[in-house]
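Support request from a user on the community tier.

User writes: "When I paste my structure tokens into the form, the page sometimes reloads and wipes my input. The last time it worked, I copied everything first. Here is what I submitted, just in case something in the input itself triggers the reload:"
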């Protein structure tokens, strides 16, 4: 009995170990197809257990049957896996070689889905940009309207300022004209005498005596006396070999008018008598007399007004508004 039991025990342990190794190899090789082999494996294990229960009488035979059954199961599973792998390889080969139309359909669907997703994304971005552009356009329109209103306001203010400036210029012109008229009116009894011998530090009384002596010698009909003269004095700073003008303020305008009428008798003399003009009137009178000799025949003043005669014998009276024109023009030289 000892000799029989020892081989049985050795066979039992060796075959069981080989069976376990084969089961482990079969379970490892069947991992990729676990979904399809789980049911088959469980069914075969149940059958194996039932067979083991029925063969409990002979342990050696049970081990041999179990070992043969395990080899058969492993071989069946290996054959099944090879067939499945071959089928999968075939399908993959067909798909890769474009023999299967499913790949095309799948690619079309995939591309369509990608296009739809991309289109949705692009449309969303376009809608977002359109909303942003619309908002910015509204802001720009508002700014444009604000700028337009500001421009209109600025133009109105500019026009108002221009009108105000013109009005101020006009008022200033009127003011200057009135001031010039008042100043000229205050000189209505004055005359300017040029050409009388001058000396340094000449007194007002000496100036009066020079006027009386000179005018009575040149105009004996006026019969000028000392009582006719309010005051007389030289104008400007004394210079050697030059004779300053003498301003003579007469007591009456009648006497002044008489002297102005008689000055025509001074032709050929180095003695000149003129009305005492304001500075603006003096400058304009000089301009009219010197700048347009091609148009003007003669010039004179009457009670502070400047007059000239052209070569058509027309007499013109200058107004204060024309003064700027005569002061601005260049001297016209007669060729």
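"...and here is what came back when it finally went through:"
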């Amino acid at each position: 009995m000892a000799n029989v039991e020892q081989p049985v025990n050795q066979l039992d342990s060796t075959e069981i170990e080989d069976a376990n190794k084969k089961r482990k190899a079969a379970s490892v090789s069947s991992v990729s197809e676990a979904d399809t082999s789980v049911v088959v494996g469980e069914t075969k294990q149940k059958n194996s257990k039932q067979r083991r229960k029925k063969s409990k009488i002979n342990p050696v035979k049970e081990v041999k049957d179990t070992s043969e059954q395990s080899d058969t199961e492993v071989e069946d599973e290996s054959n099944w896996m090879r067939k499945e792998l071959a089928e999968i390889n075939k399908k993959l080969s067909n798909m890769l070689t474009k023999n299967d139309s499913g790949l095309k359909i799948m690619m079309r669907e995939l591309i369509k889905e990608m296009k739809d997703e991309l289109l949705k994304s692009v449309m969303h971005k376009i809608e977002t940009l359109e909303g942003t552009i619309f908002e910015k356009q509204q802001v720009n329109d508002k700014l444009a309207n604000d700028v337009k209103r500001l421009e209109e306001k600025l133009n109105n203010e500019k026009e108002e300022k221009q009108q105000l400036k013109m009005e101020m210029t006009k008022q200033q012109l009127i003011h200057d004209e009135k001031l010039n008229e008042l100043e000229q009116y205050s000189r209505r009894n004055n005359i300017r005498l040029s050409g009388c011998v001058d000396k340094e530090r000449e007194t007002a009384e000496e100036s009066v005596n020079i006027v009386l002596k000179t005018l009575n010698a040149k105009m004996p009909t006026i019969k000028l006396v000392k009582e006719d003269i309010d005051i007389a004095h030289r104008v400007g700073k004394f210079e050697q070999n030059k004779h300053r003008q003498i301003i003579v303020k007469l007591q009456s305008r009648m006497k002044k008018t008489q002297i102005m009428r008689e000055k025509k008798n001074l032709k050929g003399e180095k003695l000149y008598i003129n009305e005492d003009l304001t500075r603006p009137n003096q400058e304009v009178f000089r301009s009219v007399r010197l700048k347009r000799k091609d148009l003007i025949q003669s010039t004179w003043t009457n009670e502070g007004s400047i007059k000239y005669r052209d070569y058509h014998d027309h007499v013109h009276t200058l107004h204060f508004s024309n003064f700027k024109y005569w002061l601005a023009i260049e001297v016209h030289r007669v060729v």
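Agent notes: The reload is a front-end session timeout and is unrelated to the input. Helices lie at 2-29, 34-54, 59-96, 101-186, 204-218, 253-262, 279-291, 323-328. The two ends are 170 Å apart (CA to CA). Escalated to web team.
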